[in-house]
Amino acid sequence: MKDPKTPEPSPAATAVAEPGFPDLDARLDGGGPAEAIDRLVADLERDGNYRLLLDALLLKARHELGLPLIQVGRYADLPEADRLRFEERYVEALRHVGSRFLAAGEIPTAWAYFQAIGEPGPVAEALAALPTPDDPDRIGPLIDVAFHQGANPTRGFEWILRSYGPCPAITALEQSGPADPAVRTACVERLIRHLHESLVDNIRADVTRRGQPQAAAGAGIAELIAGRDWLFSDDAYHTDVSHLTTVVRWSATAADPEALRLALDLTEYGRRLSPRLQYDSAPPFERTFEDHNVYLKALTGRDVDAAVAHFRAKLDERDPSEDGDVQSTIPAQVLVNLLMRVGRQDEAVEVATEHLLDVPDGLLACPSIAELCQRSGRLDRLAAAAVRMKNPVHYLAARIQAGEAEPS
User: Fold this and answer.
1) Positions of the region Disordered (predicted)?
2) Cβ(207)–Cβ(225) under 8 Å?
């Protein structure tokens, strides 16, 4: 039984009596709180304990700002001046700790810190510079951060393609592809290059297997298959035809000249396949490989007049009974895109104002009428179109901008 005259030790006294952190105690007793906190920060940096480092940096910030060292309640409840000063230090701490994780090669962990402060740049750069990991357990989280979470979608897509092949890459681009058209185009161009390289290898392997002479090194697909109908006998093919069809369909969005040339080469192969292996598409690309061949030739500077005439004819062939259906305007949108890409802006404005006035801008797969008129300098056409569209905003903008452009 305890002596009733002996007082019970307080919880605080018990806590102090427990073995603690002697070095920090010495710093606190000898140099005060600021020195002890600095020592804690330095120790955590040295040991690579970056998760606790964030807490230590926030402790340092609270101490230097004169705030309670142990937060109770929400930061939003602090006086505005204190909250703003603390938020600035909080961002600095997250940036600092994220940088330490990056330097340690822990990119997925670093991403959580940089994402929290809206600064994806450092992680995007680290992903771009990172060689493709051999460890399958490591590549998965990196792909998730890069592609699915958007830290560096083109790099993530490249890893999907290299590590898992075209089928998962196509599925990823279809189901969770990047919203940014430029980034999506870059992914499509990587897919074009991958499929072209693979198809060339497969064709050459078939030629070797048959004991036939090889084409010169560096020959394209069109050269490899020229005069060799036997490559396609008995419905033969050298790549997954569904993959080929999808990539060719997407290739119209490509911008890089080399990617366009390779995509055109893919259509040359597709055209030679057995009709039983060629899938129909929606207008104006009903004959997938033939129609894309015409379109891509124009984008590479070949037979432009023929391509424009080809797709104008497609537009004229549409069923008038389908007018009013947005899907029925796709041939016009395709023609507008083609005309813009081959430098025929005035013609693009003409087609758009004739066929696309009733299509909301958000449903267009080509530039809006306002953008087309702005880019072509045809603000008079925009004003006229705005009257027909009953759009006073476009009308007034066109009139004002046209007036400002006139010499005074």
Assistant:
1) 1-28
2) no
